[in-house]
Amino acid sequence: MKRPIDPFPGDEASAFALENVADAVFAVDRDFIVRYCNLAAAEIARCDPAEAVGRTCREVFGVKNCRNVCVLRQSMDEAKPIANRIVTLKRVNCPDVPVSISAAPIWAMGGTVIGGVQVFRDLSGGGFVSRLAGLQPLDDFGTRDPQLSEIVRMLPQIAQSDSTVLLLGESGTGKELFARAIHKLSQRNAGPFVAVNCGALPEQLMESELFGYKSGAFTDARRDKPGRFALAETGTLFLDEIGDLPYAMQAKILRALQERAFEPLGGVETIPADVRVVAATNRDLGRMVTDGTFRQDLYYRLSVVVIRIPALRQRLDDVPLLTERLLGRCRMAVSKNIETVDPEAMGRLMAHDYPGNIRELENIIEYAAILCQGKAIELCHLPEHLRGESGTCLPRGARTMAEIRFHAAREAVERHSGNRNAACRELGISKDTLRRILGRRDEDD
Fold first, then answer.
1. 401 and 369 in contact (C-beta within 8 Å)?
2. HSE on the CB side for 53, CA within 13 Å?
3. What is the pTM of this model?
4. Which of 411, 377, 370 has the alpha carbon at shortest distance from 391?
């Protein structure tokens, strides 16, 4: 609808509606001076709506890649609306956020474009205003489970202390997410967060990786190298899979925790360590202490504050919420506007026991998003072990997984007018994989 630059001439109801929608909405004139800004857009800009009016949109929102992703400029130049353009919004000192942008020109009574209006819609699934404002709200954990909600509620108090924290939970439950949240909520958030997977470090290199080494400590040690403790100075050191530490190394970690100091390999001086340690494991440390494979004194030193993270099968009511948030991340990765999961597919997701926990759910949603060609993930898009015998809703007559892949690949190429590079980017596969999928079926035909 063509309308003058004042979006709401005498229409208080329309103005009230736009002021209270969750999406960010703003309007500009031909010089990109902001003429209207709703509350959500003003929160992103960190200013009052009245302060945004009269300034350029680039000045108000401070987007780093403004000129590269300006859908509003294109809409005004071409004098036509643009809907659901998916881009990554980058702001200074803020997380990157995938968003769907829609824009439309604003017309004068004589038919001249005199401005434009733009709407941002979050595709990250994690809270649009909070992410663009640089915040990390605790509800990003995505839970309705009473036990996990209580843990999340206590995190700010836990973070404010400097005590060692031990995170216990199965693989894939998000232990590192909790460790990062503790760091961000703590007084050490201006310092570094350094993560170390103790199970991935070779035993012979573990001491030098954790504590560093001095020049000449061993062959090829031509200069000093700082270890992870030194790199985490004034910040947080996350020791993941600490149950995999060799017994001899456990004593050196214990000394570093007790004395808040360490000695680099080949060094003779003790170096102070201003580091907060958060450890995590999926193993039963209590049983390991009984079996003599984990030091009791280190166990007690680590377990000042213990957080037990429940497995996903223990909070299946969170699956729909987590699915929506994971789907938000996948939308950007596969460049598709997938809106939902149909009830039958969601029922199958709710019935699964998730031995791989949230990491497994994330892989399932990513797989389904690649296959999905519409706006809803259906049962046929789920991995084979979840579909079962009833998962036969195959696209356009396809009967097998090879046919599903073929149809998805062919339609992607068609959508991009034969541009196979663009099709590969959409599907998240290599050119060789695309050639193999299409070629194998062509040979069968």
1. no
2. 10
3. 0.61
4. 377
